[in-house]
Queue: 2 jobs
Job 1
Amino acid sequence: MNSQLEKIKNEAIAAIGRARDENTLTQAEIRALGRKGALTEFLRDLGRLAPEQRRAAGEEGNALKKELESVITRRRAELQKIAASGLAEREWLDVTAPGRELPAGHLHLTTQAIREITSIFSRLGYNCVSYPEVEWDWYAFESLNMPKDHTARDEWETFFLSGPSHHKFGRLVLTPHTSSGQVREMERGELPIRMVNIAKCYRRQSDVNHLPMFHQFEGLLIDKNIAITHLKGTLDYFAREFFGAGRRTRLRPFHFRFTEPSFEIDVSCGVCGGTGESRGGRCRVCKQGWLELGGAGMVHPNVLRAGGVDPREWGGFAFGWGVERTRMMKSAANIDDIRVLYKNDARFLEQF
Ligand code: PHE
């Protein structure tokens, strides 16, 4: 074979073999068979050869042209097939596969806690009630043994609503605590009483430990022959059910105008088990073995009277504290700023 043709053939076959897609194949084709392609130019220049060589070189050149054309056609078909099968792989779809589930979200941890608290107390026979969040001064303070201008009111940094005041009930407030439900419940006139009132509360404070809007739950029990031991037993039951087996409560003397005697309730810390020490040092969660839950006490006779209940015949206890704080204590999470609960940052909320 003509040595020039031999070279053209080798180069063209190698280039066709290297082509991994149709584009590069077309380039190889143009380099050999295009208008200025190596083989095209060879055939055009045949006239320069001596007549005795011309015929053989012409035949060989045309045969090579046919050969290259068919090699290219075959390779092109191959490449198209590969491209098509790649496409099938990339766009593969199993029509029998189950649908992809959308993230469903879940209840906010405050709602979770409210439901859990409700269910614990309903097992003890408590009714879940709710009372106005825009409330009269009378129910929030005065009926709870806090006369007008009594300094004890300062504890509750209350939002007052502008507007007319009622001759008996006073001004309108946003409920600063759920204790406003106590006298409302007594006024229904059905005794005995076992109620939990879970509602939003509002106080003029906002810092790492306080929210201007938060939730409290209030328990009220009115019956005959009720003693502090009943209160203690109820609180212990709640602590075990909500926080877990082995948790205890303790009552510390305190003062509220609407209970007598009054207590603050602590629950034993779940991390150190009430000892105040863990991992050879001071417990990082409670520092002293106990976590403060909230207030409680035996209902003051003046409150019973305000609700139309005869204190010589009936008595009872009440307790109330913050849902958010209680919930955070449960996970022993060290949250540096309680306001994160209502910032709606899914990265935080999804953890609960
Ligand atoms: N209402 C009180 C508070 O907000 C708590 C409390 C409720 C105390 C019931 C005694 C009895 O702090």
Job 2
Amino acid sequence: MENIEWGSLGFGYFKTDYNVRCYYRDGKWGELEVSSSEEVTMHMAATVLHYGQAAFEGMKAFRGQDGRIRMFRPYENAKRMISSAKGVLMAEPPEELFVEACKKVVKLNEKFIPPYGTGASLYLRPVLIGTGAQVGVHPAKEYLFMVFACPVGPYFKEGFKPVKFQVARDYDRAAPFGTGKYKVGGNYAASLASGERAAKEGYSNCIYLDAATHTYIDEAGAANFFGIKNNTYCTPESTSILPSITNMSLCQIAEDLGLKVERRKIAVEELDTFEEVAACGTAAVISPINEIADRVNNKVYKWGAEAGPVCTKLYQTLKGIQEGLIEDKHNWNVFID
Ligand code: PLP
Ligand code: COI
């Protein structure tokens, strides 16, 4: 195992030994190739550079208390990448190719999988880009699918401590019939200016509202949003949010724990009525929120300085399943042995 200070890792790029790549040419995917280069060479007219044919995924592998290595729900990430590929007309990496590539990159970088109990994990970043040349606005005929891995710590430096968000009313992330439901690069480009402003003003990130009416909550930065009240897990329903695999899992865990689950529109004004609110995602896991500031309307919503009891139970259950401490009764983990 590498000599790394696992416990002080943040969330960022970290060089590992290998990545894997697969090229789509002449209408078909080639063989998976192993690479130790951090670079990609491509045509200057590649569609990813001009027209944003780019999608990515984010998932994690964990070393369990039993020493076994588990990836969390990679088939769901594979399905979502296929959906993203369809969304911006890219060649779709088949599910089996996607999962095989992820398994391979975990195995090849095994010494970078953080030990159990350090709070860190191995983050996998599958990427799909249009590499074929076009100057007119058309999809490429050639694509590159690759997966790299980095050991990471918590996305927010606070870890499982509450963070502050700011409502972005003067910026939109995604339109109702746009690409918000796909994990494509353009959505992240669209979130940079508001996200950096929020950071400058002392917030972890933005709460994005529905772009049509600016009434309902869409997402919490690069994470989904949920609120808890009256023994109910509530999370937004919208055509412009990314279907989070963490959120989907938490809905199931909440139900298993005896909570009611509601997927419906959540108006900003409803924030006042929630006992707990949080952001959730692969990188964010569950990040409890203790403040949401609506900067345009000059209204501030506040919650406790510590994570609430329901968020804590959801967090412990999710982590417990991912690290092999709690029975994985829905068969979410894929073992790398
Ligand atoms: N929403 C956005 C915009 C994201 O980038 C992510 C991260 O992947 C999520 C939600 C959470 O999704 P998941 O739980 O599948 O990681
Ligand atoms: C993830 O949770 O995997 C994300 O994609 C969030 C962010 C790092 C883009």
